[in-house]
Each structure stands twice: as structure tokens, then as C-alpha cells.
TrEMBL record:
Taxonomic path: Eukaryota, Viridiplantae, Streptophyta, Embryophyta, Tracheophyta
Family matches, as InterPro entries: Cation-dep_OMT, SAM-dependent_MTases_sf, SAM_O-MeTrfase
UniProt entry keywords in alphabetical sequence: Lignin biosynthesis, Methyltransferase, S-adenosyl-L-methionine, Transferase
Name the UniProt record assigns to this protein: Caffeoyl CoA O-methyltransferase
Species assigned in the record: Artemisia annua (Sweet wormwood)
Gene3D superfamilies, alphabetized: Vaccinia Virus protein VP39
GO biological process, one term: methylation
Family to which this protein belongs: Belongs to the class I-like SAM-binding methyltransferase superfamily. Cation-dependent O-methyltransferase family.
GO MF assignments: O-methyltransferase activity; S-adenosylmethionine-dependent methyltransferase activity
Length: 300
């Protein structure tokens, strides 16, 4: 419904764009302020050509194209898939976002519509990134799911095709898209930390090699850790010590009823805080977040 209340379709509706925003005027504002002025020339040309096509309602809108383009750059996508191409607006926005050696596997049952946009995609110099396959997507996805070399191989998959198959697509795509997991970044070592730190301190290749070290272990050893970590953290790097406000017990009166473990570690935390405040090798900041965290930036 137009914000002005007149019965004429708003401009964006005429060219087949759609928005869930309540006010057409607001959507038009977004397009005219943030989207069209930054739209690459090739995407503008493809949008205008598509607007003349009888099925223009199917096209991806310019704001969504802008969003896809930014998202793909932010996640450094390289290998992508698109199901549902039509004349190629989202495909072009993807192709423009990918690096020179990026790849898009583009699937659609209709090549004729893709060929409307193809000359513009070629002129934009990004056609070499696209591997267009004509035909229904499901059988091809099934082939790929059967071939484990495709598992986890796609950084990004955009689905904009037959909605009645979305769940069928999802069942297959979940195997083909990369796992975002972080486990491969972790080198877990079981055992007390001090002996391992001592080995590292003895090996100069570890000196100044860590950007960030977080300590949240046995509080009675924090000062022992600090003596070693100061060599291992980079100059400019940060060590974070957790629990440096120790349940608020640091300022509790001597006869306060403290739990046994709180009382035991209290003096170690008091000693650490004093030592860090006096350590000229680090700049410090004690944050009253959680149970207190002290950040130490190594400066020498
Ligand atoms: C909404 S349009 C895609 C719009 C496109 N993303 C764009 O930027 O303009 C949907 C497309 O899905 C395609 N399609 C429909 N069923 C399909 C299927 N089973 N497999 C592959 N493509 C299909 C249609 O041919 C049509 O081009």
C-alpha cells in the first residue's frame, strides 16, 4: 500500500521489486539513498533490462543484491552455488563480489532467461567465474552429495528457486556447505600448564609469539604464569587474567564469612593485582566485568 494512499503502484512495484517494509516511501528512500547510488553500472543495466521482461517479478531486488554482495565480501567467499538464476541479477552481484579465481555453480531449469543477462555479465568481466548448468537442481545436488569430494566445499549457497523444494534442497545442501566449526584451530594439551610454559620459555622460537593469552586456571599460580607469559606474549599483545576481583572478597573485612576456597585464593589474587600494577613491562586495565578481568598489554 502506498504511503500516500493513492491507488497507483509505487515505482519499485512496477519493476517487480518487493519489500516487507510497511511503507513504500521508506523502501523507495532506501533504494534511492543507499542502493541505487552505489549500484555497479552492470547491475543497473541488468536491472533495467530485466524490468522489461514479463516475469520481472522474479528478479532479486537491488537492495538484496547489494546485501549479498557485501555479505560475500565480508565472509571472503570463493566457492559458491546459486539455485535459481533467472536473468542473473543475484548471480552478477555474487560474481562481482568474488575474487578473480572465485567460482559460482549456477543452476536453473531455464537457460533462455540467463542468456538475457549473459552479455552484461560478460561485459562486466566476471563470466569466467560462472559455471551455468541448465536443468532441475535436485538430481545434480544428488550427484554431488554422492561424491564426497563436494562435501563441505561451498562457502556460500544462495537458493531462490522453486519454494516447494526448499526442504529437499536443504537436506542436500547441508552436506555440501562448509562447516563453520572452530575445532581445527584448537591444539588441546592435557596436563599442568607450568611445565609446558617452562619448555616454551626455554625455546626462544616461542618468545613474543602469542597475540593473546587468557588465564583462567589455578589462581595460586597466576604470578608464576605471569613470569613466563611475559616472554611468550608479543610486544603489543595482551594477557587477560580472569577473576581478578575474586568474588568481591578482596575488600571483605578479615572476619567476613568467606567460603574456604575463596579465602584460600584471595591472598594470591591480592598479590597478583599488586604485582601487575607495579609491572612496568605492561600497561594494565582492570575491568569490572564478570568476576573482574585484568588486561595486560606488553610494552617491553
Ligand atoms: C525467483 S527466480 C530467481 C531470481 C534470481 N535469483 C535473480 O536474481 O533474478 C527463480 C528461478 O528458479 C528457477 N527454477 C525453478 N525451479 C527450478 C528447479 N527445480 N531447479 C532449478 N531452477 C529452478 C526458475 O527457472 C527461475 O529462474
Amino acid at each position: 500500500m502506498a504511503a500516500t494512499g493513492d491507488a497507483q503502484p509505487a515505482k519499485h512495484q512496477e519493476v517487480g521489486h518487493k519489500s516487507l517494509l510497511q511503507s513504500d516511501a521508506l523502501y523507495q528512500y532506501i533504494l534511492e539513498t543507499s542502493v541505487y547510488p552505489r549500484e555497479p553500472e552492470s547491475m543497473k543495466e541488468l536491472r533495467e533490462v530485466t524490468a522489461k521482461h514479463p516475469w520481472n517479478l522474479m528478479t532479486t531486488s537491488a537492495d538484496e543484491g547489494q546485501f549479498l554482495n557485501l555479505l560475500l565480501k565480508l565472509i571472503n567467499a570463493k566457492n559458491t552455488m546459486e539455485i535459481g538464476v533467472y536473468t542473473g541479477y543475484s548471480l552478477l552481484s555474487t560474481a562481482l563480489a568474488l575474487p578473480e579465481d572465485g567460482k559460482i555453480l549456477a543452476l536453473d531449469i531455464n537457460r533462455e532467461n540467463y542468456e538475457i543477462g549473459l552479455p552484461i555479465i560478460e561485459k562486466a568481466g566476471v563470466a569466467h567465474k560462472i559455471d551455468f548448468r541448465e536443468g532441475p537442481a535436485l538430481p545434480l545436488l544428488d550427484q554431488m552429495v554422492d561424491d564426497v569430494t563436494f562435501h563441505g566445499s561451498f562457502d556460500f549457497i544462495f537458493v531462490d528457486a522453486d519454494k516447494d523444494n526448499y526442504l529437499n534442497y536443504h537436506k542436500r545442501l547441508i552436506d555440501l556447505v562448509k562447516i563453520a566449526g572452530v575445532a581445527h584451530k584448537i591444539d588441546f594439551r592435557e596436563g599442568p600448564a607450568l611445565p609446558l610454559l617452562d619448555q616454551m620459555v626455554d625455546d626462544v622460537t616461542f618468545h613474543g609469539s602469542f597475540d593473546f593469552i587468557f588465564v583462567d586456571a589455578d589462581k595460586d599460580n597466576y604470578l608464576n604464569y605471569h613470569k613466563r607469559l611475559i616472554d611468550l606474549v608479543k610486544i603489543g599483545g595482551v594477557i587477560g587474567y580472569d577473576n581478578t576481583l575474586w568474588n568481591g572478597s578482596l575488600v571483605a573485612p578479615p572476619d567476613a564469612p568467606l567460603r574456604k576456597y575463596v579465602r584460600y585464593y584471595r591472598d594470591f589474587v591480592l598479590e597478583l593485582n599488586k604485582a601487575l600494577a607495579a609491572d612496568s613491562r605492561v600497561e594494565i586495565c582492570q575491568l569490572p566485568v564478570g568476576d573482574g578481568i585484568t588486561l595486560c598489554r606488553r610494552i617491553s
